[in-house]
Design a protein that fits this description.
Layout lengths: L1 H15 L10 H12 L1 H4 L17 H4 L2 H10 L23 H13 L10 H10 L4
Helix pairs in contact: 2-6, 5-7, 6-7
C-alpha cells in the first residue's frame, strides 16, 4: 500500500512540475519542460505536428508573428487570423492556468526552435495580455 501511495505521489509531483509553479532553472529549461509536458503530444517533440490534425510550428506565421496574438491564443484560445482554416476536429486547448513565466518561457522556446528566429516573449508581455483578457 505504501509503495502504491509513494508511486502515486511521485507521478502527481511529476505531472505538476510544468503547472506554473515558481520552479527554478533557466528560462530555456523551463520552456523545454513546459513544452514537453503540454505541447509535444500534439505538436511532437520536433515541432513537426501531425498532418491534418496539429500544425507544425517551424516556419509558422502565427508562431513568428505578433507576440500578443500568440500569447492570447495560448491563454484564451483566441484563434489567430494567420492560421489556415481549421481542418478536422483538433482545437488548440487553452492554458490560462500556466504562470506568466511558464507562458513566456514556452513561447520563447517555440519562437527560437524548429527553424524559427522570432524575438523572445517576456513575462511582462504575458502579464499585459492576461490583464487585457480575451480578444474578440
Amino acid at each position: 500500500m505504501r509503495v502504491i501511495l509513494a508511486m502515486s505521489c511521485g507521478l502527481l509531483a511529476g505531472s505538476l512540475a510544468g503547472c506554473g509553479g515558481d520552479e527554478g532553472g533557466s528560462p530555456q529549461d523551463r520552456g523545454s519542460a513546459v513544452y514537453a509536458t503540454h505541447c509535444a503530444s500534439c505538436h511532437q517533440r520536433d515541432g513537426s505536428g501531425v498532418s491534418n490534425a496539429y500544425p507544425p510550428l517551424g516556419g509558422s506565421a502565427t508562431v513568428n508573428g505578433d507576440a500578443d496574438t500568440l500569447i492570447a491564443w495560448l491563454l484564451f484560445g483566441t484563434r489567430p487570423a494567420t492560421l489556415p482554416p481549421r481542418k478536422g476536429l483538433a482545437v488548440m486547448p487553452q492554458f490560462p492556468w500556466l504562470s506568466d513565466a511558464d507562458v513566456a518561457a514556452v513561447l520563447t522556446r517555440v519562437r527560437s526552435q524548429f527553424g524559427n528566429d522570432a524575438p523572445p516573449i517576456t513575462v511582462e508581455q504575458v502579464a499585459a495580455v492576461r490583464a487585457a483578457g480575451p480578444r474578440p
